[in-house]
Every structure is written in C-alpha cells, then in structure tokens.
Amino acid sequence: MTAADVRDSDPGDGRIATPSTARAPAWSAGVPSAAALPPLAPDRGLASPDWSEVVEHFREGLIVHDVDGVVRHLSPVAERLIPEVVPGEVLAAAGVDALTGDEPAEFTHHDRRLRVRQVPLSKGRRCWYVEDVTESVTRADALLAERARSAFLAVVGEKLGNPLHPDRAAAAVVRLAVPTTADVAVLVLAPRSGRARWWRAARADDGASAVDGGVLAATALPAAIQEGLAGAEPHAVDWLVEQAIEAGWLPGLAAAETTARVVPLPGRDDPAGVLLVARRSSRWYDEADVDLLRAFAARAGAALTTAVLYRDQAEVADTLQASLLPVEPAAAAGVQWGTAYRPAQAGLRIGGDFYGSHRLGDGGSVFFLGDVSGKGVEAAVFTGQLRQCLQALHRVESQPARLLKLLNDALLETTQAHGQGRFATMVLGVVRPHRDGSLALTMAGGGHLPPLVLRESGEVEAVPLSGMLIGVVPDPRIGEVTVRLAPGETCLLYSDGVTEARGGRRGDEQFGADRLLNAITGCHRMPAPALAERVEQVTCDWLAHGDHDDIAVLALRATGSATRPARHLHAVPGPAGAQETRGARA
After folding, report:
1. If we measure between CA atoms, which residue out of 187, 191, 64, 68 comes closest to residue 120?
2. What is the SS3 string spanning 376-429?
3. Non-local CB neighbours of 294 within 8 Å, separated by 6+ positions
4. Tens of pLDDT along 172-210?
5. Mean pLDDT of the chain
6. Are 375 and 353 spatial neighbours (Cβ–Cβ below 8 Å)?
7. DSSP string, 279-314
8. Model-wide pTM > 0.90
9. In the structure, what pLDDT confidence band is assigned to residue 235 with cuts at 50, 70 and 90?
C-alpha cells in the first residue's frame, strides 16, 4: 500500500482528505493571495511513511484486496475482528457473506457486532473498513429497552389509576401483563374469608388476551402462591411451572417449554396478592425482565390496595347509611302507611329528615316525622341518635306530649356533651284503632309544620298543632291535639323540604303550603303509599332537578278494617265439642 493509494482514496469518514490538483487557491477581492493555503504537493523525494504502522491505530480495521479479490493488506484491527481473512488468499475464502457484496452491512461475528463498508481504490483495488459497533449497539438497545419499559410502566400507571373496584383492578392487571411480560398471567388476591379470587389473561393466536377468573379455597392454592402471599419470591422455576399447570392456570403451555416467575404485589401490611407470569422458554426471564416485573407488581399492588381500601370504606359507608336510613313503619291493625323520602344529597342516600313508628303493648302505635338542623352525614348521624332515643323512651312513656319532653331532655344532654348546637322539629303521635274501623290520633308538636287531614268528603283540613323546637330549651312548650279518622280518611305529615322547595319559572319561588293543598285536593281516595308518592312527585316537578332540602312524607290512612279479632273455631272431641262448634257457627 503506497502513499498514492491513500492520497487518491476517500475513506468517507473525514479523517483523510482527498487532494485535488484542479483545486484553485482560496481567494477573495481585497485579500492578499498569500493568505490562501497552498495545494498539497506530491511526494518530493521524501521517504514514504510506513502506512501499516499508521493504519494500525485506526479505530476501523482495513482489508485491501486487488482486482482479483486477493487480500493484499490486513490491518491488525481487521485481523482481530475477522480472523478468517488471510493475506494472500482470496477474500471470499474467509466465508463472510458481508464481504462479498458491494453495499454496507452490519452483522454479528464471533459474538461481536460488526459494521463494514467498501471504498474503491485505484487500479481496481478495493478497501473494506471494518468497525466494531458492539458497545454502541448495546447502548442503543439498552436505551430502547429502557424507553419501552418506561412507556409500558407509564401506561400501567395510567390504566391502573382508574379502577376503584378490586375485581376490575385485578382484571386490568392481568390484561396489561400480557403480552409485554408474559404469554399467560395469573393474579391471585389475598384470601378473604378463607377463599381467594384469581384472574387470568392468556395470549390468543390473534395477539389479543382473553381474561377469565375463579375462586379457590385458601388451602387449595399452590405452594408457590402461598409463599408469595407470605411475602417471599419463589425461585424454583421447575416445580413452580408444574404447580401452575396442575392448577389449570397455563393453557396451551407444556412444562418442558415454559418458564415462570412469581412476584408478590405489595400491600399495606401484607401482600395484596401474587402475580404469576409464564411464557415459552425461548424468552427466559433475565434480570432486566425481573426488575420490570417488580416495578409492574409495585404499581399493581398500589392499585389493588387502593381498590380494596375503597371497597372496605364503601362497605362501611353502606352499612352506616343503611342504619341511618328511615325505617318503614311497623304494620298496625287498621292503619295503612305510606312513605316517601328524598335526601338533599342523593349520592349519600341519607339526610336530616326521618320518620318511623313503634308498636305499643295495647295495640296502638307511636309514629313520628321530623327534621333536624343541617344536611348530609352530620344531620343523618343526629337523626340516628334521635331515633335511638325514641326507641328507648317509648317503652317508658306513650303519652305524646310527655314523650316529646323526655326526648327534648335527652337531646339537650347529648348535644351539650358533644358541643353541638343542633335541634329538631317533630310531630309525634299515638294512633289507636277503634272497633268501628276509625282511628284516634293524639299528636304532639315540636315546632313542626301542622299535619293535614284528607276527609272522606274531599275536604283538606290543617291540624291546629303548634309547639317549640326540640333540643333548644330545657322545658319547651309542647302542643297536643287529638284527631279522629273515619275509615277512608288520611292524615299527612311532611317536612319543610316540601313547602320550601324552590323552583317555578324563575327557579327561586317556594312551593308553599297553598300549592301543597291544591296538589292533594281530590286525592282523598288514594291509598296512603300513592298519596305520599304524589306529594314527592309534585315537589320534585316543581324543583326541576334543582338543589333542594331533605324531603320526607308520612301518610297514615284508616283502612276501616274490622279491628275485632277474628273468631277461631276449635275442634273439641266428642259430641259436646260438636255442639259447641255448631253453637259458635249459629
């Protein structure tokens, strides 16, 4: 290899410039020509450098062959990267396909990633530049893999941030795990009441994943899963696969060609569950895969823990709400009850209005409807305390006015002990049936709206009942009145959420007592449930879906049913018994 070979060639990497005898010196107007660089002169009898020594320090290896393909020069770098190339022999004899074409190529040789390109030289000779790009390719692959992992975990965080139900969160976890981390993914939640729910996603032929699930007894879980639920991470892959196959969790996978891992899902104290991932042995789980699984499991565990916590809180809230909801009145002889209830905050299903009834030992019933100050949870808790007081006090006092005063004293003691300034309005009464089917209602008022009575003639009467608020002063003035309902007549109790409902054309006009009277006029033949529903309906129509206070309605109707106990015939053996039976029938 001579200086002329190097001078007349362009390696293409910018390190060796190609001179040109036709290049004119650089000049411009007004600038002396002495500033221009002189052209590269030919060798002027100087000693030629040892080019083999020069190219030895190139980053790239050089292979030069003549027009017949015989290797004439082989740099040390090229000799180390492609030891099959021998100087003096035909290049094709090396058996490297990439060196037989004309285009640049990249290939793996002796566990190294090589990149080659060809440059034509003078006299039909050619030079192959060989570069070892293993480290750069490895870095690029690692960067791409890290970007893919980061993108996957970002999607996981986004998808698992929405489900607030353990079942939906678990299904989302296994669906996300396939196919990025596994061909089959199984999630087993921590056992609850001795049973463990599991979900599985399996990769289908079309690339989609089908999700199914089931329930297993905690004692029937594979040993590896139980280890994972205890916080360990089993590493014995062979028996782990066998256990998963025995459990029927790995459809379409054989033990000999499957690799698997088990990763616990972190929870608050103990693992929230265990994730089992499996795929064919052609893709073993390396350390990077395991790190990705652990990061995925951490996010899945956080999502499941949140979902379980939300479920537990929802169950507690539902239980408490159910205990604070108004209870339907107990059935009473000769009385038909009708109720309607709509809280101000529909999402809570509870509020500050309440109603109910309790049976008395003499055949009568205590009934009540009231409204406490405030809305929402705090008001509902106060109504719960008030109802509990009534449930206890009606056993020691059944006279309405005295019972209401006892309730006032109890509420004062409760509110003062808790530093609450709450109060209530209420109508409390006792209904007793008569033999003619009528009802006698004795009612006491504690600052509440007066009841309405729908007479059989169609007339609507307002009961003159007054009184002071309950829970404000130690000895309030309590009004009391007695009303008689003939068969077919109804007494209607309602909260101020009805009369103070704001709506109409402008949206700020109160429904008022007059509109309520007009709405129920002509409804005297309605059953009590239908009447209560009508009052609720006309109120809601007036609101036009706007904000409102709690709405409660209680209607009691005299059914006219015979309160006389039915006579039962008792068969008595013998003729005397037969005569008694005939006498009773007569």
Report:
1. 64
2. HHHHHHHHHHHHHHHHHHCCCCCCHHHHHHHHHHHHHHHHHHHCCCCCEEEEEE
3. 263
4. 999 999 988 888 999 999 998 899 999 999 887 766 778
5. 82
6. no
7. EETTS---HHHHHHHHHHHHHHHHHHHHHHHHHHHH
8. no
9. low
